[in-house]
Amino acid sequence: MSTAFSRRGRRFRRATLPGLAAALVAAAAAAPAAAQVAAPAYLDARTPVAHRVSDLLGRMTLAEKVGQMTQAERGAVDGNQGQITDLALGSLLSGGGSTPTPNTPQAWADMVDGYQSHALATRLHIPLLYGIDSVHGDNNLVGATVFPHDIGLGATRDPALVREVEHVTATETRATGPQWVFAPCVCVTRDERWGRTYESFGEDPALVSAMETAIDGFQGTSPEDLARPDHVLATAKHYAGDGDTTYGTSTTGTYTIDQGVTITDWPHFQRVDLAPYVTAVRQHHIGSVMPSFSSVQWTDRPGSTPVKMSADRELITSVLKQKIGFDGFVISDWEAIHQLPGDYATQVRTAVNAGIDMFMEPYSAAQFEQTLLAEVNAGRVSTARIDDAVSRILKAKFELGLFEHPYTDRTNLGTVGSATHRAVARRAVAESQVLLKNSGGALPLKPSQHLYVAGVNADDLGNQAGGWTVTWQGQSGNGAFPGTTILQGIRAQAANVTYSPDASAPMAGADVGIVVIGETPYAEGMGDVGNNGHTLEISAADRANIDRVCGTIRTCVVLDVAGRPQIITDELSKMDAFVMSWLPGSEGSGVADVLFGRTPFGGKLPVSWPRSAAQEPVNVGDPGYDPLFPYGYGLTTRR
């Protein structure tokens, strides 16, 4: 999911209202006996969900059904929240950087509850479902716990930890209002030139599937868990093949690989790109699935041409829903249907008939509803397809308990960014560190050593967290959110530390030099290698820091803070130890924990490390496989 704008959110003082069903029952009890009317079956929490869905569906007009299929960006309705009622909107979202002012847990909960009050003012009082990109913690919220991105979690090889990480994320997210997250990304990254590499757990579909304990962390493991205040509906994205697109096939702006074409045969697609979704559906009962912006072109079907995933009825309906057995709902990505061929009516008709159930039309909600109504009335979209879509959406709302508790349960509001949650993040950071070289026992460090630290990324929270942090693209610097930098973590464990961002300070007397290199933040195709100025090569400044520090101080350690491997082939011989730190998030102390041996190194590469950018794509199992560091490589140390 991509992009967004920041608008001022209205504050809403939550009314002390009971659940909607209880309110109606109480009102009926207060009326004269002769006038008493039983509450509708869909408001009876004791009634099975399937029956509640059927009962409510039977009471809805076509316009109300289409409203449930529509999701708008909060920025589009905030100035006139009556649109939520007038359009009978089923859902709102916050894109990256779309937040209330102030950006606090309380303000988030007030904002979402304010929108919810307008949804409950509709004829049938159907509550709103609010979605957000909590892709490494509740990352839009200032003060939330910011975890390592998925590629770092993949390096931990620790499914139980990943489940715990996402349970914390779910707890912080739902306590502040949203009940639905556009996560996890179960893409399989096959080319590190892709700007979304860090959103993937790795290049091996088996590893990605193993890390799908993330879904259990979000949703829980039983049907009753979803209604609890520490769980959210999860989304498996981006179905399917977005990490496997061919470099140079993207036609979106300056992108080179993101939103491109997966050129493949069916056996490869099924084994690599589709396999994680089978796991997500059959083992973890994922609640929603988001199709990719990318296309598929089959090499084993003569005459095949690229088909956008949002238009692919075979893969969405025949494969995902029917063959794999997905019974949740499919949500389109940000204005994704606008990339389909034809006029807007054709785009809407094609996507609905392909099997998309809810439409992320951030600034086109009214137009979408009018268009879909016209398509149904003209007979080009069947009422059966509409009923199927709406039934899937209502099922999720009932399972989330929104009809009984439509407003935010703020029980866990005080846990947002808590010491307990940050301790989980610190442990995840420590477990994610991959030791790729350690000559002469350079690591672990000793607290008594005089340490010389160089490199901007040693003391930059924004670079440490990467994209999807407070804003869509993320931002360099230390002012956007609270946390601990790697330098602060080192200083907490060693008394004698000299820091010089450009390695210009005197180095005399230093026992060990630590050079922190890496990337600056980016998200999605903006981070593709190519036209946007991004490259897998390390920067000239990082190269100079390595040369200065490693050429002067006897023992030299290099840390790479980046969302993907960088080309360090020529520099590797200059350093005694090399650590891949990924994008650790808000808890830089976790990096220091392994440097000083408080936690042993145990991380393993979730992707193959290329010798040069020209070697990409390089993946385990390739003919002539010869990367600089192979998939699964990682040295260990003792505590």
Account of the protein in words:
By secondary structure, the protein is α/β, with parallel strands linked by helices. The chain contains 20 helices and 17 strands. The chain has helices spanning 20-30, 49-59, 62-68, 74-77, 82-86, 105-119, 150-156, 159-175, 205-210, 213-219, 266-282, 313-324, 344-354, 365-377, 383-399, 419-432, 461-465, 486-491, 540-550, 589-595; strands at 70-73, 91-94, 129-132, 180-181, 235-239, 261-264, 288-291, 295-298, 307-308, 329-330, 359-360, 434-438, 451-454, 497-500, 512-518, 555-561, 577-580. Helix 2 packs across helix 15. 58% of the residues are buried. Mean pLDDT is 95; it is low at 2-18 and 22-35.
Write the layout of secondary structure elements.
Layout: H1 20-30, H2 49-59, H3 62-68, E1 70-73, H4 74-77, H5 82-86, E2 91-94, H6 105-119, E3 129-132, H7 150-156, H8 159-175, E4 180-181, H9 205-210, H10 213-219, E5 235-239, E6 261-264, H11 266-282, E7 288-291, E8 295-298, E9 307-308, H12 313-324, E10 329-330, H13 344-354, E11 359-360, H14 365-377, H15 383-399, H16 419-432, E12 434-438, E13 451-454, H17 461-465, H18 486-491, E14 497-500, E15 512-518, H19 540-550, E16 555-561, E17 577-580, H20 589-595
Parallel strand pairs: 1-2, 1-11, 2-3, 3-4, 5-7, 6-8, 7-10, 13-14, 13-15, 15-16, 16-17
Antiparallel strand pairs: 8-9, 12-17
